[in-house]
Specification:
By secondary structure, the chain is an alpha+beta fold. It has 10 helices and 5 strands; from the N terminus they run H-H-H-H-H-H-H-E-E-H-E-H-E-E-H. Helix 1 crosses helix 2.
């Protein structure tokens, strides 16, 4: 009778998917602090850790959170960074970049929902916050137009053009054309200064004057032009430029 070969030794269980106890404990402590005290209970890098937990189910994400904050300045800077710049950071792959941009998009959608189809006068603070959230950390200039109807209700919000770190091309004819297409009665112009200083330049003032004169010929009013910086904004109307 042929000898029966001995059974091979049992394979050791693969424990590579298990977290060290200290990592699991840290994650749970952060979650508990967030649930008890909200976002204000956490500094930017810890809030970012909570986000990264969803992308990286195992391992210590604290070093990556610190690298991202160091590279982009703060939590908002991380979310606002381009996919290309995010992927330049060691440890950031397509999945993490996608998850971060998804959170940014959700934040913008929520802020936009607080002002769209609402009277601008009664939701001015929410409108300013929306402009800050969507534009204050951009690395290039954007020119946005908020279109209002006869009752000053925001009926559309559009980015008309994108530019460089210190210039964005704006064409008064295109502004008027789009305003007529939407049957807008008034506009609020918004653009950002990536330098962080919202002080209007002479070019900003000249461009606003050209748009105001072009819109005046078709009965569209320019209510304001907001220049958004890193931590504050300037209103042309409040400063006497309009």
């Amino acid at each position: 009778m042929a000898a029966v070969a001995p059974a091979p030794p049992a394979a050791k269980a693969d424990r590579s998917d298990r977290q060290p106890p200290y990592v699991a404990g840290h994650r749970q402590r952060l979650r508990d602090r967030f649930m008890d005290g909200g976002a204000d209970a956490l500094p930017d890098y810890e809030l970012l850790e909570l986000v990264l937990f969803q992308s990286l189910k195992n391992g210590d994400v604290k070093p990556l959170a610190h690298r991202l904050i160091k590279t982009f300045g703060d939590f908002n800077g991380v979310l606002s960074a381009s996919v290309e710049r995010l992927k330049d950071v060691e440890g950031v792959g397509p999945r993490i970049a996608c998850d971060l941009k998804l959170i940014e998009a959700a934040t913008h959608r929520m802020s936009r929902g607080r002002v769209l189809k609402r009277p601008v006068i009664s939701s001015w603070a929410a409108l300013l916050e929306y402009c800050r959230v969507t534009m204050s950390h951009r690395e290039t200039e954007l020119f946005r137009i908020l279109f209002l109807d006869l009752k000053n209700i925001l009926i559309a919000d559009e980015i008309q053009s994108t530019g460089t770190v210190n210039h964005v091309p704006v064409y008064p004819r295109e502004v008027v054309k789009r305003g007529l297409e939407l049957n807008a009665s008034a506009l609020i112009l918004v653009h950002n200064h990536p330098s962080g200083d919202p002080t209007p330049s002479s070019a900003d003032i000249d461009m606003t004057d050209q748009i105001a004169r072009a819109c005046d010929t078709v009965g569209i009013v320019i209510h304001d032009h907001l220049v958004v910086g890193k931590s504050s904004e300037v209103s042309f109307k409040s400063e006497g430029y309009l």
